[in-house]
Amino acid sequence: MDIVVCLKQIPNPDLQFQIAADGKDVKREGLTYRTNGSDEFALEEAVRLKEKHKGKVTAVTVGPARTVQMLREALAKGADEAMRVADDDPAAVDPMKVAGMLAAAVRKIPYDLVLTGVQSDDYQYSETGGVLAGKLGVPYASCVTKVEAAGKEVKVWRELEGGVNEVCTMPLPAAVTIQYGINVPRYAPLPAIMRAARAPIRELQPKDLGVAGWEAFSSGHTLAVRSLSPPQARGRAQMITGTPEEIAKAVARLLREKSFYRGA
Amino acid sequence: MGADVLIVAEHREGKLVSTAAEAVTRAREVAAKLGGKVAVVVLGSGVDALAQSLAGLGTEVLQVESPHLRDYTPDGYAQGLNAALGAISPRVILLGHTATGFDLGPRLAAELDAPVLQGCVDFDVDAGKVIAVRRILNEKVVAQLEVATERTVVLTFRPATWKPADPAAGGSVRRIDAAVDPAKIRRRFVAYETSQVEDIDIAQADIVVSAGRGIQKKENLKLVEDFAKLLGGVLGASRPLTDSDWLPKTRQVGQSGKTVRPKLYIACGISGAMQHVAGMKDSGFIIAINTDQTAPIFEVAHVGVVGDVLQVIPAVMKELKAGR
Q1: Fewest Cβ atoms closer than 10 Å to its Cβ: which of A252, B1, B28, B303?
Q2: How far are the Cα atoms of A59, B25, B57, B317 from residue B167, in angstroms, in the given order?
């Protein structure tokens, strides 16, 4: 079973974000990046499926040169090959364009299954995997917490709201977006990290995908950032400040006043 | 180019999901700007009662019927939606950003060769462009995006973005019998499964104290649990903790877990991702403790403490036990 897993590198979500002067992106200087959370689970699931059914795992990303580090980590964690669609746009706000680039790259690889994370934690569109499936013309299922492959079919459990799962089956080839918690991602062993550091990473330019430029992948629409702004302070939270002792006294007083604590 | 706004209603096991009702008022405002109308489409097999219920919102309802639409499938719904497009010419198709809505959005987009933008918190039209408003980067930035296209645009919006519309007169139901080809339904529905785990029901508690990534280590769960017990409450958690099996899934507060409305909710080291907030924002009184002063949890909290839960909780417990 050959599997393509699509990964995205995102800014660390715990950072503070400042809006750039033109209001079209956040300031990128000083940002640190990591692999998107649910993509880590997708990679692990791909490697586990390969270990069970044999085959090859190819990790694919769209992004600037910094994403090579993420691809090397993927190789160290069990991917066999890695491919970068070398669009240097650091923001990549158009998920349909990204899905188009991914589709063009994936078509170059034999695959039975395409896995992505359910969403990227920076933009949270929850759509790149689905749009990619549409462009590839394969069936897909989103938000999956269990995958069972058997023969020419895959059975998946989709996580719905309120603790309910939808079980469904699809013929292969198919695409699946992986939900958090489906597995426990492994750590890369040191020898694998050493090997991955020297492994080749295939880089794709527009001409390799048969187009003159990346803009060819946003056909039928243009998506542009009109503005970015900080959220309007809803001003609900009354903030308690002070030394740790003062904070503790204030919170304890509040809990007593509201009768949430009535004493032991 | 269409001028209408079409809302896709979601239902599961005979019950409507509230997202369709939530979208009606905003859809009417935008449709008025476009000079078009609003319609709600409900797809299924024998969904007369659901269609009537939706018509009670005062809107035109397109009831798309086929035996092959009994259970939701992306391919079935895409065919059914296509059958409804004779009756309406949408500029925008709206779906709730639920596990079903964000599953269907990309499939519809593929069917209609339409742009799709998911997880919006508002939308509008301006100078021929569709505007989608979204929260990005851990809720810390509001992005206004504009889509320039002649095509229909598919949008999903977060549940509880708008208040459900009140019942109104003037609604109608138009039944459309769709020819859905079952051979074209590639993904087959098998069953719904509900996981059964024996545990307390945190939705029944008056006080819920929840732990998030900010507690750093599994061993620190005991501290939060002791705090909960001191207040006579129960221990809840955000998704990363139940994903890591630190606590059973039954303790997870959020869209994919439990929705709780206790008298007091204390969020300990939880940043406040949409998926968590959806499950606790209607609590009577919310206290949030987090080291990141820009964490979105402070937008829904009544009282906020910027600090490390591992220091704040022991200090508060000590104060409570000390009496005064």
Answers
A1: B1
A2: 51, 11, 4, 48
